[in-house]
Structure formats: C-alpha cells, structure tokens
Amino acid sequence: xxxxxxxxxxxxxxxxxxxxxxxxxxxxxxxxxxxxxxxxxxxxxxxxxxxxxxxxxxxxxxxxxxxxxxxxxxxxxxxxxxxxxxxxxxxxxxxxxxxxxxxxxxxxxxxxxxxxxxxxxxxxxxxxxxxxxxxxxxxxxxxxxxxxxxxxxxxxxxxxxxxxxxxxxxxxxxxxxxxxxxxxxxxxxxxxxxxxxxxxxxxxxxxxxxxxxxxxxxxxxxxxxxxxxxxxxxxxxxxxxxxxxxxxxxxxxxxxxxxxxxxxxxxxxxxxxxxxxxxxxxxxxxxxxxxxxxxxxxxxxxxxxxxxxxxxxxxxxxxxxxxxxxxxxxxxxxxxxxxxxxxxxxxxxxxxxxxxxxxxxxxxxxxxxxxxxxxxxxxxxxxxxxxxxxxxxxxxxxxxxxxxxxxxxxxxxxxxxxxxxxxxxxxxxxxxxxxxxxxxxxxxxxxxxxxxxxxxxxxxxxxxxxxxxxxxxxxxxxxxxxxxxxxxxxxxxxxxxxxxxxxxxxxxxxxxxxxxxxxxxxxxxxxxxxxxxxxxxxxxxxxxxxxxxxxxxxxxxxxxxxxxxxxxxxxxxxxxxxxxxxxxxxxxxxxxxxxxxxxxxxxxxxxxxxxxxxxxxxxxxxxxxxxxxxxxxxxx
Amino acid sequence: xxxxxxxxxxxxxxxxxxxxxxxxxxxxxxxxxxxxxxxxxxxxxxxxxxxxxxxxxxxxxxxxxxxxxxxxxxxxxxxxxxxxxxxxxxxxxxxxxxxxxxxxxxxxxxxxxxxxxxxxxxxxxxxxxxxxxxxxxxxxxxxxxxxxxxxxxxxxxxxxxxxxxxxxxxxxxxxxxxxxxxxxxxxxxxxxxxxxxxxxxxxxxxxxxxxxxxxxxxxxxxxxxxxxxxxxxxxxxxxxxxxxxxxxxxxxxxxxxxxxxxxxxxxxxxxxxxxxxxxxxxxxxxxxxxxxxxxxxxxxxxxxxxxxxxxxxxxxxxxxxxxxxxxxxxxxxxxxxxxxxxxxxxxxxxxxxxxxxxxxxxxxxxxxxxxxxxxxxxxxxxxxxxxxxxxxxxxxxxxxxxxxxxxxxxxxxxxxxxxxxxxxxxxxxxxxxxxxxxxxxxxxxxxxxxxxxxxxxxxxxxxxxxxxxxxxxxxxxxxxxxxxxxxxxxxxxxxxxxxxxxxxxxxxxxxxxxxxxxxxxxxxxxxxxxxxxxxxxxxxxxxxxxxxxxxxxxxxxxxxxxxxxxxxxxxxxxxxxxxxxxxxxxxxxxxxxxxxxxxxxxxxxxxxxxxxxxxxxxxxxxxxxxxxxxxxxxxxxxxxxxxxxxxxxxxxxxxxxxxxxxxxxxxxxxxxxxxxxxxxxxxxxxxxxxxxxxxxxxxxxxxxxxxxxxxxxxxxxxxxxxxxxxxxxxxxxxxxxxxxxxxxxxxxxxxxxxxxxxxxxxxxxxxxxxxxxxxxxxxxxxxxxxxxxxxxxxxxxxxxxxxxxxxxxxxxxxxxxxxxxxxxxxxxxxxxxxxxxxxxxxxx
Lengths: 636, 844
Fold this sequence. Notes:
The structure holds two protein chains of two kinds.
Chain A (H helix, E strand, L loop, with lengths): L5 H14 L5 E6 L2 H6 L1 H14 L6 E6 L11 E4 L3 E3 L7 H11 L8 E2 L6 E2 L6 H4 L17 H6 L4 H9 L2 H11 L11 H10 L6 E6 L8 H8 L1 H15 L3 E7 L3 H16 L15 E7 L8 H8 L23 E5 H13 L1 H5 L9 E8 L5 E6 L4 H8 L9 E6 L5 E4 L9 H6 L8 E6 L4 H15 L5 H18 L7 H15 L3 H5 L2 H9 L1 H10 L11 E5 L9 H5 L5 E2 L7 E2 L9 H5 L7 E5 H10 L7
Parallel strand pairs in A: 1-2, 7-8, 7-10, 8-9, 11-15
Antiparallel strand pairs in A: 1-3, 3-4, 5-6, 11-12, 13-14, 13-15, 16-19, 17-18
Chain B lengths: L1 E4 L2 E4 L6 H7 L23 E4 L6 E2 L10 E3 L3 H16 L11 H7 L22 H9 L22 E3 L9 H9 L6 E3 L6 E3 L16 H5 L5 E3 L10 E6 L8 E7 L2 E7 L12 H6 L14 E3 L4 E3 L2 H13 L6 E5 L5 H14 L5 E3 L4 H13 L9 H5 L3 E5 L3 H4 L1 H12 L3 E6 L11 E4 L5 H14 L12 H9 L3 H8 L4 H12 L4 E5 L7 H17 L2 E4 L6 H8 L8 H9 L5 E5 L12 E6 L4 H5 L2 E4 L8 E4 L4 E5 L12 H12 L9 H11 L8 H7 L2 E2 L28 E7 L3 E2 L2 E2 H4 L1 H6 L4 E4 L1 H6 L7 E6 L2 E9 L7 E6 L15 E8 L2
Parallel strand pairs in B: 1-5, 15-16, 15-22, 17-18, 17-20, 18-19, 20-21, 22-23, 23-24, 28-34, 31-33
Antiparallel strand pairs in B: 1-2, 3-4, 3-5, 6-9, 7-8, 10-11, 11-12, 13-14, 13-24, 25-26, 26-27, 28-35, 29-30, 31-34, 32-33, 32-35
C-alpha cells in the first residue's frame, strides 16, 4: 500500500466503510487479557469454524476485539449491529447462538446479563448497568476494533485528529488546545499535560524524545495494558500529535515484557502505521517526521518512575535520579523528553477531534475528562470502568461495580495502587478527582481501585502493600530501602500481636521521614497505606497492639478456629480437609480442633456447609478462652 | 555568585552544587555518597537541605547553586530527618561501637563494660579511624538507634586477590560502583538485586577477576566504610607516616602516597593531587609497590664467584674483584644493560660509566625504548617533538581520540582514565588494534587489524585525510608535495587487505571522525622490539597528526623510558636489541655488566658477568659477581613520564645494610678502576651534571622540582614540522611456512627491575600471567591444545616454553604474549621483532 497523505486518508476511510457491508452480522468476541484466561481465542476459532461450516462467510464476520472491560463476565460476545450482549459464553453455546440469534434474530435467554437489583434480563451492551453509567470516550472503541487491523481504527475516524493537526495547526495551537481542555496526566501525579508539553517545547535541542510510559506495575491494575492491547493506534496517534507539538522526532513505548499481547499488538500497530505513512519520514505527506520504537522493560516496579524508565532505556539499572533537572529539560540521553502515560496519550486524539470545549464539559472544575479504573477486590463486577471525573466512589463501587461480594459490608477502598491510600466508608460520597483523593491521603495513581470488605484487616492490608513497595524499592536511597523495610517489620510484629505501645509513634515518625526524605515517587508515596489506615482505622491498630486482637479475624497469630459444639453435626468434612490432621471426632459426634496442631489455614471453615456453619474464628479474649479449653487431639 | 547558607552569606562558584559550596565555605553538611569527580548520586539523603521557595527537601549534592539562593541545612525538621536516616543506615551496619557513649576512652583503655564481638565492633575493623560513617555519627551526635539491627549476614568475599569485600559493612553509597563505571570505565561491579536485598556485586555474583576486574583498587579508595579493605593492611598497625613518591613501574609517573611503618612500606594509595594521575592508580602502583622493598628475593650482600660457588664478601673485596676483571677487557668487549625503571640520575651515571669506564658503545636499555623514542628519532630531522606531542590533560580535553596499538585499560590505565574524561564530554573514540579489549564498547569505531597490519592502516588513514578533503597546504615543509603524491597514489584496496580490516566503511568512519573539527589526540604504543615496520607506522602517524592538526601521545612502557630516551641523545648511538643479542651470542661481547634484566642466553657463555641487581633471578645464579642495588623508595631521584613530565621522588626508606644506590656502585668502581670522572657526592649532583649535558634537563634541580610539583622537559627549540615521505615499499610482515602462526610480543611493565610481579604476589599471576601465550580457540583446536596446556614456542633463532591460553579476542592465525623482559626462566628469550612467525607444539 502506498503512503497516505491527508486527503488520501479520508478516501481510504470511505473506501473501507463502503467495503464493509451494512447488512453483515458481526460477532465480536472480547480478546482482552481477562477473556483470554477464559479461553476466548478458542471460542473465536470455534465461531469461525462454525461460520465456515454453515457457509455463512458472506453474511457473518467473526472479529476478536480489544477488552470490553467487564472481565467478571467473560468471555464476552457481542452480536452487532444489534449490540446483543452475551456473557460467559461457552463453546457449547455456539450452535444455539447461530440457530437463534444469527439466523432468526432471536435471543438466547440464558446468556443474557441479569441485573441483580431488578432481576431483569438485559439485551444490549450499553444498557447493562456496568456500562450504562460509564462514559467510555477512551475505552469505548475497544469493543469495535480488531487491534491488529489498522483499517478498523481508521474506519472509526482514526488518525483524523492527526490529519487535522498536520493540515492546519501549529504546535502552539495543539498545546493551547490541550491546555484549554484541562487534560492532566493519567499516570499518577496529575500534572497538566499541556503545560508539560509547553515546557518541553521551550527547550532548544538538536534532538527531543517522547515516551509512552506503559510500565504498569500496580497490582490489580491493567487499564494501560488493555488500551495497548485493544486500541494501540489511539495511543500511537496521541504520541504523534504530542511529538509534533513538542518537536520530537523519536519516541519510545516502554512496555513491560510481562505484557506479551500488548507488545505484540503495539509492535504490529507501529509497523502498520509506518507502512501507511503515518510514522516515519514526512508523516501524511507533511514536513513532520517521527519514528516510535517499542522498548520492553524487564519488570521492575520502579521503572514506571520516569527517570528510572529513561535510565532503563539507556541500558542502565533502573535507578531514578534527583529532579530537577526534569525530563523536559534533560531526559533520555540528556535530551529534552516528554513522558506521558498510555491513557494520557489516548486522550489526545479524542480532545483534538472533538475539541477542548467538548472535553472540558466532562469532569470537575480542576479534573477534566474521564478516568479508567480497574475495579478489583471484593466486588461483584470486576473489570475496567471509565467514568467522568467527579463521580463518587459510591456510584463506582455500588452502581457500576454492583456492590460487595456475598452481601458483605464495604470497609475501604485502596485507590492509586500500592502507594495510594485506603479510603473508608464515610468518604464514599466524595467525588473522585486528583485533588480530593490527595486530600484524603491517597492519590489517583494510575487508577487501581481495590475494594475491601468487612473481612479485611487494615493492619494486614498496610503490611501487604508495604511489603510490595519494599521489595520493589530500587535500593538507591536510604529512607526507601531501609525505612520501608523497618515499616514492614513493625507492621509484621503488630499483626503477630507483638506490637509495642510506642509503635504508632514510631510508624508515624518513620513514615514522615520516608515521605519527605526519599528520592523518587516510589519512596515518597510508599508509606501512604500505613498513614491512611492509621488515620481512618487507628482503633484496629490499637486492638492489635493492646489487646492482641484482630477485629477482622485475619491475622493468623491472633485468631483461633473453633468448632461450635452446639452446631457441629459430625459430618467428617472438616476432618478430611484438614491438611495437618488437627481435627478429631467420630461420625455424628462433635469434632474438635487441636489448637496446638492447627495452622489456621481455614480449610475447615471453607468446607463446613453454610447451613451448618459450625466453624468460627475468634480473637482477643474469646481466643484466650478457646485456647484454655483446648484439648489435645487423641492419636488414633 | 552569592548564596545565603544558614543565614550566612557565602561565595559560591557558578556550576557548583550547594554541597560543594558549603564545603568550600567550611560549613559541614553530612554526606556519605558524594565524592568530588563523580556525578551527583543523591542516595544517602543525609545532605538534605531546605531552599526557600522550593517544596520539600532536596539533597545538597544534587542541587546547583543559584544566585541569591537561601539555603537552610540545620533546621529542627532537617535534623530530625537526618538523625532518623542515619539510624536507618546503622540498622544495616554494625553500630555498637559507633553509638557507644564510652567510645572515646575505649581507644585508650577499653573502659566500657559493654563488650562487643569482633564482627560488630569498630576496633577490629581495618577502616577504624578512617571511617566516614564514624565521622558522620560523630557530627550528627547520634547516641542511639531505635530500630532493630538487620545484619545482612553475607559471607565475606575473599576469592579475589588484594582486597576483601565484606558487604555486611556496606551502606550502598554506590561510590565504588560509580568509580568503577565513571572514572575507570570498567563497570565491573554494579548494584544487584532490589529492595532490602539490594547489594553491590558482579554479574551473577562471580568473582571480580572473572568479571574482568583489573584490580586498580579505585573502589577500595572510594569506600567510606570498611566494606572494601586491602587484605595486606588488615593485619598491620596504623602507619607511622605517609610520604609521596613517584611510581617507577610504568611510564605514567603516578604520584603515590606510601604509608610507612617500621622501615617498611605497608601500603600505597594514589595521591589525590598527583599531577599525572590525579588520585588514580593501577594494580601495580596500588597493591604491588609494598611487595618490592621487602621482597624475600632481595639481594643484600655483594657476592663473587671465585671458584664454583657464589660467596658473600665485603664491598671492598667485591669491588676490587670486579674492577680487576673488568680492566682485562678491551674497548667494546663489555656489554652494559641498564634498567629503564631507574632514576634519571642512575641512568645517567650508568651511561657515563659505560662510556668512560667500561669504554663500550654496546649499551642497551633493558626494555624497548618505545614510542616516545621513535617519535624523537623522527623529530631529529623533521621538527621539534614538543610541538607535536601532548600531555594527559590534552587527552582529557580532546574531542576525538584515536588509540593505536594499546589495550589502555590494562597497559596504561591512567591514560585510559583521561580518555574516559573526554568520552564523558562526548568525544569520539577510534580504537585500532589486533585484539579485542574493554575499550571496544566505548568506541565509535573499532579497527581490528591483523598482527603487523598497523602501518598499512595508518597509511590508509593518512591517505584518506588527503583524498577526503584536507587541503594540500604547502605549509607542511619542503617536499610535502611528494608526500601528498605518495598518499594519492596509494592502492587503498591492497592496503585494506594487508591491514586485515574487513570493511572499508569502518576506515571511512574513522577518517570522518579524524576530519571533524576540534582537538584530536592520537595515543600510540609500539611493540617490544622496534623494527622497520613500526618505524613506518610511526611515519604514517606523524603525517596523520600533521594532516589533521592532531596531537600525539606516544606511550612509554616503563617508569623512566622517556628519561632514558632523552639521555641517550647525548651519548653515542646504542645498538639495537637484536644486534646486542647477536653480539653476545657470537662472542663479540665477552663480558656483561647487567644493571637491568636481560635474558640468560643459552647459546654461549660470556666470560664474565656482573650483576648490579636488587633481586635474585635466573641471571644471578649464573653471575660471577653480584652488587646489591637499592630500589625506588630507597634512593632519591627523578623520573620522566610519558608526557615528558620531570618529577622528583624522595628517599623514604633506608636501604637494607649492605645495599647501595646504582649510581654509587658505579662511582665506586670508577674510582677503583681510576677511569672517568665520578666525583658525585649525591644524586642531586648527577642531575646538575645531566642538566648541563642533556638539553632537555637544562636548569633542572631537586630543589626546584620539589617546589614546583614537577615540570615538563625543556624543548630543544620550536621548529616547524615537516611531512615525512614514507618508505617507497611497505614493509612486509615476515612469514615462514615452517612457522605458521604470527606471535605478537607486547612489552608491558609487569615487574620492577628483576622482580616479576607474578612472582612477587600470586594474585598478580591470576590477573596477568607472563607465561601465557594467547591463542584463538580455532587454532588451538587444530593444534589439539586446550586451555592451560604446556606448549613450546619455536621461532627462527630460538624457542621458549609457555602455557596455552584461549581467547576469542585473538585473531585466527595469531598469538600474543607479554614479553616481561625475559625474567621467567621458561621465557628467557629475546624476541627478534615485535611480530614474528612461530610454531607452537605441545610441550612437556
């Protein structure tokens, strides 16, 4: 194919649209990471085989798309153009889908989504409550695009924003538009993107770079991955526009090698773009040239920090360095460099094609646009959600997320990944934007949202996150390397019931030293989980320290498992499941746990039938009482 | 530029960091990771400061001063953070003694009742008293650590020679890593692992030697704690005093601070203000100087062989014995060999002794006179060398560097340190040589020539200067048209073939770098035995330098090669090494006076051999008389380094009883033999005479040199430089069907006088084995040889035993070895040239 220019891009789009028959039924199968795990690729192959077998190739097209976001319900199949949303589709459902839906336009009832609140069955994807309340300006196209087919992206007005920029906008115009839109960086700190570009543009240099930070490392966060996997061209288009604005001629996409599908799709997308004249010399026939390379990170969490990311590209150990100088002045190989996160880049073409004014209407006064969150944890609807800034946590967790699993009580939500903070129930109605989250002691981060229910111990949660950041510290600066380790050690002691009265004071003091003394963002934010849990759940810390009690019944050293004699029916289930033979008893007799042998794995609690519910956990005084009464298991 | 620091106005030079400005103003801000010369790191976080108008705290070491800046370094908040960070550092480092309230009196009378174990106390730490952690704890006033210790419990790494690595004492300041990377360009060590397991180590944690470490010891000098400690010093008392001397081993002229205890040198560190080395050294200066004066092989009594055996006698008897025998030889029947690691004064006295007392023109330096000498030969008729050659500082300031024929990081590490300084400022680097080296990864272009292919390459490059753009200016001397014509008519393809370089494009790239505007420096080293081929190479390099406006730095191999070359010019011409050997072998030389190492030739026994030596060697067993001579630190004198820098080195040790300085021995002989004018009372007097005889030393005196920190040699007058017409026919590398491999013999200062470092310290043998002959694995395979096999290397005119070593860096069809002056019995041979054909067979 010959290289495109501004006008031939439009004619190509028209050609593609014309080529696609309107009356064709399109079976779109989500090819996201979540659905991959459910076996969507095999499912797609089976659909394709069925199309061939039924000789329907003229009428039906099967397309694997990017992530639809509703991972809880995968594999997801949407029949277009009717937008029929089938969830948890299995190979055995294919026949029926063909017989009823494709051939007769009837519904396969059992594959439809049932709204848990009303009990109603919902047909169209957009009416599923999970999607209905979202505003999917960045993520929405994922479900319509085969990420390996550049024509899909072009058909949906892809690269139109770039054409518009190259045709009639100066770099200053582009920066002004982004600034007017009020876009803030989606990578964590929320620095105004336009401002960042303007600063970088201001530095004179023979070479400038742009970088897309796709080193998504937060546990449970995968929105950047899904964008790169599902709609890579939107990121590339954003980067080209950004490079034009700041005057860069070379770019890197730094993606972790643990994201093989993202690497594959973005690499192919770059090749396709290059082939069509959207990258390389004289992009779309203009005077602007740029090439973008993929750089695979080796999987260190700290590489997401911009200066260590650049060190990594340069072939050095991913050590962050002191700022200033900021990358805009001295970045990659000492040249002015602009780094933005995947989601930020994906916002750029949307803003330029729909206008800053349109974009500015979404969101709050200081945080414009939408934000993608990965909603995980003890929540009914696990998945990726894109909502306008300013939506409350309650709306996200209960209306979109469908509330807490198993009807439990909500306790807290950790936003911003391991270095964010835990936000308690009484703040559920605060709107989500950069500033509110910061005020609450947490942060937007890259958009991780881990929901916790009443069975979560907040001291244990703090210990868990600190353990993660401590292990991922690069080791360069003392407060982060040693300070966080000491925090983990103190928290571990507390969860073992060995806390000391002065621990809270020490934790606060040390956490503040780490925050103000550390070199980079990793260390400066690492103590957030401790500080926020101490701020909102101090009583739990006190219970652990003073009463050796874990109110959430999580910390193994502080709880016992106990079989209630009045409830036990003597079914032997727990005896069979106990891995250490700590439970004794005969059929139809009360079973007893030998507390000395028990390793507190919880297997007995899991297997005890719900209607019996004989296994309980106790802490504090009750635990002591149980231990006093404990009997040794009789050897058979 | 003025800044306010804790309310006080201080002058801060532009471009400085706040920490540097504070240090200059005498304001203490604690820091453990920052050292001058290295890039700011910002790891220890002890130097955090507050700057008005900036959010939070910033490290002073990473913050540049700005005019009018207001800095606070001692606010209560900063003090709290600093104490807490220091407490954290001490959780990973044994701290019982550091924070002990009785630490001061403990040094005197162990007053504390809180005894601590050997591994956790400071008393037995080799760094006690020099530890920067101790200083910082003292300055911050820390007296308790609230956090529990997290001792790493890592085995002490003792497998490498010279120093131990105890990472239980490491505070991860990264100074060693950055020194190794930034200053030495080696990158042998790095941070490995992450989180609280992060530690300093090598790739896959292999021993340093396996990771390519050259044992320069720069990391040891950079370490603020006892984590890296010199093994030899672990069991020594603190030194009584420290003195500065000049290292006599190679031609760099490093100033070393030697620590002295009980009449011994116990250690040597590079002097931070050394004019040539600026705080850097190499394994030889850093770890081997201490092995020299006190070596078990020292000769301390004169000996003569009246009958069968050597017997110890008094000086008077020995002198009489030798004087009597020497008198019996006629003019030119005595061959004199002098070491080029001696002082200028010793060499001058020996040369004079040869001329006036032994009355011989057969005088030979023990080591090849080297590149500076060859350039001086060319300069004799074509201009003054001083306007062509440059100093190490010019290397550091260069925009383009060309390294010819030397593995700098091994052979001339201090030159390499200066190359790295230039590379940091984005200089271009061309590396031309026969084998791969660690320089290759820093190079813009590597020109891999086959052994002996150098002159073809240099000719090709000089030609490219003319064909690729340089104007044919007439200002390059009479006859330059002829030279232009010569280069224009060169057959490029044929030259490329004989150089052995694969692609013309890499030569083009190198030529383009040379033609770039800016300062260019060519560093050049020759092989062991200067031959026609190398003279031809020198001519091409001379022309290349003239055509590009580049400066040359010819590298000398031993401590005073350059000084010897200057002295030589005021005496009769010396024979070549091969002519001298021939004379010995064929009996024209009947007696040998050896004041430097010379191989024991098996061909014919000389009638009489006198040894003026410091150490026992193979030669001493065969000598008829032995005079014990002083070593470097036992005699005062001067050395001229490769740059032409004349430096004074004091006498810091008393020589053992019965040992005399070289100049004194020959003076005594002259008096007994009543020949020549040897009325020197001291070395200073010799320099006075030399300064009158040798133009380059004009006006030099010990008093002046002591005051001036050394000076450059006087040039013989500025004269314009001429292009030199190369030989009409390129010199061919000799080939011989019976000897299918080309052996390249590299002279390298691998010892001091008769003492081989590989013998003086087993650790050095691990690093550089003088017995090794390196082969390409393919050649080894066809010869059915494995790594470590004993081999016999035969050539036209002799053979020697060696050990085969395999390396991919050696080209197929070639072999290389270090020629250590024929010191090892198995290697006692004289190479006929720097590159010559050999046959390798399995030895016993």
